[in-house]
Design brief:
Structural class: alpha+beta
Strand content: 25-35%
Low-confidence stretches: 1-35, 209-225
CATH class of the largest domain: Alpha Beta
Radius of gyration: 22 Å
Number of strands: 18
Length: 357
């Protein structure tokens, strides 16, 4: 009997060790420096060592020179789309055109260069259309193998859409693949952009020219100014990326110098003629807002969090930027960043400012 008990104890211990090893391995192979067991908002819950690690990451990133690379479907030496349909045009496409496929035996390939080892943010561009795939697959060759992510191409188009942050090695061999999937919708291959660092904005982009066809009815948006306005508010919000985090009030809120979460959203909306109070809970409960379901989020919507639990107050506000990402002033990162919404604890709801269609 004692021998049987010993065997069972050893088996349990071995199972536990395997579980711990699996968790550790998972933590070691994650690409995003944000995937930690803390909230990235205002009340992070991070211990001193976690805060120091995040600060070191940001400091190392800032020491490196800025770097970005854009590869469009017209770059013949860096773009290959065997079997895909070319010649698609849309005012909201990057450069005005794209390639597409519903089913194909081959993936599109964008070839990218990385000058140094490190973290890189990847963005993609597509025109949002009703017939597009809601689950387009992007494969990213990283330092730890190819990582696949899905993107809903029926929405969030017409500008750079963040796909993720990945660890990459230096070289001119990195490939971003676009897969046509199961043929349930048209998958678009338009352009990708690679930017050095986890807290860097995407490359600048130009709005479609007036009178160039926006609002012709081809886009999923109901009116031409709808996409333009949402696009502009996210573009302006991205100009605040890397602004140092500093709690306010009682201290003043200064654009591009020191901003906390509600200061950031206040400054962005003020730029477009809408005044918001400098308190997350007041932005949540204030007038001139429309309640929005999480599934119906659009770029520019305000997203709120209760990081201290569902029975406590609002602690953090962010601005939705598309594809599950938000722009926000993060206490964890110590600056304004664009990061995945799911890494902020305690999602509580979203509001749409009335002047946004």
């Amino acid at each position: 009997m004692r021998r049987l008990g010993l065997i069972i104890a050893v088996a349990v211990m071995a199972t536990l060790l395997v579980s711990i090893a699996s968790v550790t391995a998972g933590a070691q192979t994650t690409d995003s420096p944000s995937q930690l067991s803390v909230s990235q908002g205002t009340v992070t819950g991070a211990n001193p060592s976690e805060r120091r690690a995040a600060a070191r990451d940001m400091a190392e990133e800032e020491k490196l020179p800025n770097y970005s690379q854009v590869v469009d479907n017209t770059h013949s030496s860096r773009f290959d789309a065997p079997g895909w349909k070319g010649g698609g045009s849309d005012v909201w496409a990057h450069g005005g055109n794209y390639v597409s496929a519903r089913a194909s035996t081959s993936d599109v390939r964008f070839k990218l260069r990385t000058p140094t080892d490190g973290d890189y943010a990847l963005y993609a561009w597509w025109p949002a259309r009703k017939g597009n795939s809601s689950a387009a697959r992007f494969g990213v060759e990283t330092a730890m193998g190819t990582k696949w992510i899905e993107a809903n191409q029926t929405r969030d188009g017409g500008m750079w859409v963040k796909l993720g942050i990945y660890e990459m090695k230096a070289g001119d061999r990195h490939v971003v693949r676009v897969s046509p999937g199961d043929g349930s919708g048209e998958v678009i291959a338009d352009a990708v952009a690679l930017v050095r660092g986890a807290a860097s904005p995407p490359p600048d982009d130009l709005a479609p020219a007036e009178g160039s066809g926006a609002g012709s009815g081809k886009n999923v948006y109901g009116a031409s100014n709808t996409n333009s306005e949402r696009r502009d508010i996210v573009r302006y919000g991205r100009t605040h990326i890397s602004t140092p985090y500093y709690h306010s009030p009682p201290d003043a809120c200064w654009a591009y110098e020191k901003e906390d979460c509600s200061c950031f959203t206040k400054l962005v909306y003020s730029h477009f003629g809408t005044e918001l109070p400098d308190q997350p809970k007041e932005q949540y409960w204030g007038g001139n807002r429309k309640w929005i379901a999480e599934a119906d989020l659009k770029r520019g919507d305000l997203v709120f969090f209760k990081e201290n639990g569902p029975y406590n107050g609002i602690t953090h506000v962010a601005m939705y930027s598309g594809n599950g990402y938000v722009l926000h002033a993060s206490s964890y990162y110590g600056k304004v960043v664009e990061s995945e919404m799911k890494y902020i604890e305690g999602y509580s709801g979203a509001r749409r400012v009335r002047h946004m269609p």
